[in-house]
Design brief:
The protein has about 350 residues and is of the alpha/beta class. Helices cover about 30% and strands about 25% of the residues. Strand 4, helix 4 and strand 5 form a beta-alpha-beta unit. Helix 6 crosses helix 11. The protein is globular, with a radius of gyration of 19 Å.
Length: about 350
């Protein structure tokens, strides 16, 4: 089955990751690329200023960049992947859904809307049922599906694995790579020999999105998980890979061995881009590390390590590649889930 896809915001850092990940994809065929009006009409090669660490695919390089609007897009696209800035996505994505397109989006707008699935296939694939509610309430023929923030997606699968033991409260401190701010987001003078102890809006995203992902959908209605999440988010001078220190308070008293087994037992998603094992657990207390471990599972696997039992629960570190698993790869995985579940 060949699914024709369009990439919205294709010239940016995450858009380029989409192009890289979809090159030779077994299901998806890139049929259109869009960007801002300033880039429309240029070849993708000229507009993108390619910065990904593999060569630009020739079949995409020669494509003409389109404007991001329902009128500019071909009618025969089956699925759209979006890496638009949230301010643009908030305006354009509903228009595209109203026009009948299905959108798998990495943009932050509407992630917490009660009728928009916020999905990690290994955690809450059943939340796609919200599409029916969404179509009824909004009158759309298309659909909007979101993946969470890059820091949220690093931690939440590990919490999902521990939820069976009565997840009560979570404290997390992040050490987030500079690529999460975009190519021009943090200057070298800011980050070299430095740590930035605040990332605007990031803490709230972790604290709310994780509760939605761990929540439940019943008869088309969403209920948030009652876990309390507190986050402190920091920018550090690593290029890619978000490392997070998690302190999870549990109802049950568990050994390190039991937690180790639970993390390994998180069910994999039977999808082309999904790792065979969602979470890898290190025995070495010095792992995971961004430079060494961010590309595990072709950048799609989450790593955990440093497991320690505490009086309240468990302490550990987790890591994921923020622009692959935490952004473009997460949207691709959701697109594959939409195909698998018959929404495409």
């Amino acid at each position: 089955m060949s699914v024709r896809v369009g990439l919205l915001g294709a010239t940016g850092a995450v858009g380029q990751r989409f192009v890289q990940l979809l090159d030779d994809h077994p299901t998806f065929e890139i049929a259109a690329v869009t960007a801002s009006p300033d880039s429309a009409g240029e070849s993708y090669r000229d507009a993108a200023k390619w910065r990904v660490d593999t060569p630009i695919p020739e079949d995409v390089a020669g494509m003409t960049v389109l404007e991001t609007s329902p009128e500019a897009l071909p009618d025969d696209l089956d699925l759209l992947f979006s890496s638009l800035p949230s301010s643009v996505g908030a305006e354009v994505e509903p228009e595209l859904c109203e026009a009948g397109y299905v959108v798998s989006s990495n943009s932050s707008n509407e992630r917490m809307a009660a009728d928009v699935p916020l999905t990690i296939p290994e955690v809450n694939p059943d939340h796609l049922d919200l599409i029916e509610t969404q179509r009824e309430q909004r009158g759309w023929d298309g659909a909007l599906v979101k993946n969470p923030n890059c820091s949220t997606i690093t931690m939440t699968p590990t919490l999902a694995a521990l939820d069976q033991f009565g997840l009560e409260r979570v404290h997390v401190a992040t050490l987030q790579a500079v690529s999460g701010a975009g190519y021009s987001g943090v200057t070298s003078m800011e980050i070299i020999d430095n740590v930035l102890p605040h990332i605007g809006g990031e803490e709230e995203k972790m604290e709310t999105e994780s509760r939605k992902l761990l929540g439940s959908v019943d008869d088309g209605e969403l209920s948030l998980h009652d876990v309390e999440v507190s986050a402190s988010c920091n920018r550090v001078p690593s290029l890619d890979g978000h490392l997070e220190n998690v302190f999870a308070e549990l109802d049950a008293n568990l050994s390190v061995e039991e937690v180790h087994e639970a993390l390994l037992d998180l069910d994999a998603a039977d999808l082309p881009s999904a790792p065979d094992q969602p979470i890898h657990v290190f025995d070495d207390p010095e792992r995971p590390q961004p430079r060494l471990d961010r590309m595990r599972g072709q950048g799609m696997q989450i790593s955990a390590g440093g497991l320690q039992a505490t009086d309240e629960g468990i302490q550990y570190n987790c890591l994921a590649h923020n622009t692959i698993r935490g952004a473009a790869g997460a949207s691709v995985l959701n697109g594959e889930l939409l195909v698998e579940e018959g929404w495409i």
